[in-house]
Amino acid sequence: MNQSIKVWAPGTVANMVCGFDVLGFALADPADEIEMELLQERRIEIAPDPVYQLPTDPDKNVAGAALQALLDAIPDEQVGFRLRITKHIKPGSGIGSSAASSAGAVVAANHLLQQRFSPDELVQFAMHGEKLASGVKHADNIAPCIHGGITLIRSIFPLDVVRLPAPDLHVSLVHPQIEVRTADARAILKQHVLLKDAIKQWGNIAGLVAGIVQNDHALIGRSLHDHLIEPVRSILIPGYEELKQRCLAAGALGGGISGSGPSVFMLSASAAIAEAVAHEMRSVFSRIGIEHAVYVTHISPAGVRTSI
Amino acid sequence: MNQSIKVWAPGTVANMVCGFDVLGFALADPADEIEMELLQERRIEIAPDPVYQLPTDPDKNVAGAALQALLDAIPDEQVGFRLRITKHIKPGSGIGSSAASSAGAVVAANHLLQQRFSPDELVQFAMHGEKLASGVKHADNIAPCIHGGITLIRSIFPLDVVRLPAPDLHVSLVHPQIEVRTADARAILKQHVLLKDAIKQWGNIAGLVAGIVQNDHALIGRSLHDHLIEPVRSILIPGYEELKQRCLAAGALGGGISGSGPSVFMLSASAAIAEAVAHEMRSVFSRIGIEHAVYVTHISPAGVRTSI
């Protein structure tokens, strides 16, 4: 039995424009590094984070909450975990930083426990981390972080995670260094929507899923529209409209707000287009004078992994 | 050049439970028969319907309106059509009776005109028939009637019809002989819906489309839920809840109201289950004392066709 392991837990993009609360995909980059040792007693020991000063108390740390849920499922076993998370996914960026910590921790623990839990069980455990982070037990970052590719949360109660193939798409992603709290981004949404707008939304998500499964880039592009959430949330991101228009003009198939923001992602059919799109992203936020980080990567078929 | 032709235009099931206004599929049976002759002058001549006494004035007949839209696209040509429609799809049944007349007519005309129009153009023409029938230019019966299989209307303006493969599924369908006017069925819908219910709906349509494209019957079954329309419209169909529960207990994957009703359809993985489901359908409406017609058929990969 392995006594220690290291895993990489990828950043993830939730919502995917028209798939609010149900779709998400895994990024090849960035990813958090999680080093873990198996202990012979029921204890969770989290090393201090030198950069972000995340809580080391397991009850207040998202990875700790996820691991505690896992331990609660095996109440009679004398095991525990010592872990160190090296964060490469900035907390608050909107690309699944808390999900990477939670999902990475339970996947690492499952390796040390000889794969005794199923992926669906791991998703359930990691959701306790999301609950701690945002107050809501959601899985739209957790599921793609664990499974890789694109995942659909068809239903959350009961949990039904549908794995979709990862189409061969490149991702440009910009993280403008402004704060958008998930709770605020959720609070500004209207509780009611017009049926006719909801119909447009499910026409698009149906087209997007058909495009993903059939690897039809044109259909994916035509379907990447959000008539409900983007008009409200984009107000929180300075320069959003200009950014989007310039990315589309540079050849992106489409894109939008990553999760609840502030990161914005764009999908492209080639690495060259993704680079051109990234150039527009840097240009817009440089002009507005907002510090930003840009990634050019792709949809990763793999989720949490044991090698880089 | 052929001077006459005969086509069969299939019945269709719009909405498909969670795909309100966007999904539809073609039935192998019943189908209307349309016999058409090419005329050398701009005239539409419709034979009287001996059973349903449908209007013979082309401006008041759905097939006439569709053919007129087609003629409007070729204003300089001296052509016209003489047609006779033998209705096997009862008007008002909720399985695309008007769509079959409209779509069948323009497909027949297109054969006589040596296929000069694309399928998307034919859908556009036939939608004029739907406008006449229901006041709304919708395509969720027209598109599967023309293309066969399952179709997604991703967007109506501009029209974007996405063809999905026809999974190998059997259909049981019951038409209780009660009147549900499309306009009434539409009027009772709420204009606003809860965002949380809309999210459930698009989780299900996403699952349904993934299940259809991947021919995953279990996923199709899990996704056939409608949290928005069925609770309102099912009130118009006596015995609906009992009917649905008994069909599911007999092994159906799922199903619901066909279009705006009153027909109800169920999908099943085998012909034997579809027969058992049909038995439940007959039993429920016999006990309530409502006359009914039952069909046991399958999703047809073909749309309007030139042979039976």
Number of domains of chain A: 2
CATH topology of the largest domain in chain A: Ribosomal Protein S5, domain 2
Mean pLDDT of chain A: 96
Strand content of chain A: 15-25%
Structural class of chain A: alpha+beta
Most extensive chain interface and residues per partner:
A-B, 40 and 40 residues
Quaternary organisation of the protein chains: homodimer
Portion in helices of chain A: 25-40%
What's the CATH architecture of the largest domain in chain A?
A: 2-Layer Sandwich
Secondary-structure element pattern of chain A, one letter each: EEEHEHHHEEEHEHHHHEEHE
Distance between the termini of chain A: 22 Å
How large, in whole angstroms, is the Cα Rg of chain A?
Answer: 19 Å
| Topology, number of strands of chain A | 11
Low-confidence runs of chain A: none
State the shape of chain A.
Answer: globular
Structure report:
The structure is a homodimer of 308-residue chains. With 308 residues, chain A is of the alpha+beta class. Chain A is 37% helix and 24% strand. The first copy, chain A, contains ten helices and eleven strands. Chain A has helices at residues 62-72, 97-112, 119-134, 142-147, 182-187, 195-213, 217-223, 230-233, 240-249, 271-288, and strands at residues 4-14, 23-39, 44-46, 80-86, 150-155, 160-164, 170-176, 192-194, 254-257, 264-268, 292-298. In chain A, strands 1, 2, 3, 4, 5 and 6 form a six-stranded mixed beta sheet that branches. In chain A, strands 9-10-7-11 form a four-stranded antiparallel beta sheet. In chain A, β3 (44-46), α1 and β4 (80-86) form a beta-alpha-beta unit. In chain A, α2 (97-112) runs antiparallel to α3 and α9 (240-249) packs antiparallel against α10 (271-288). The A-B interface holds A 18-23, 152-155, 160, 162, 164, 189-196, 198-210, 213-214, 219, 222-223, 228 and B 18-23, 152-155, 160, 162, 164, 189-196, 198-210, 213-214, 219, 222-223, 228. β8 (192-194) of chain A pairs antiparallel with β8 (192-194) of chain B, so a sheet runs across the interface.
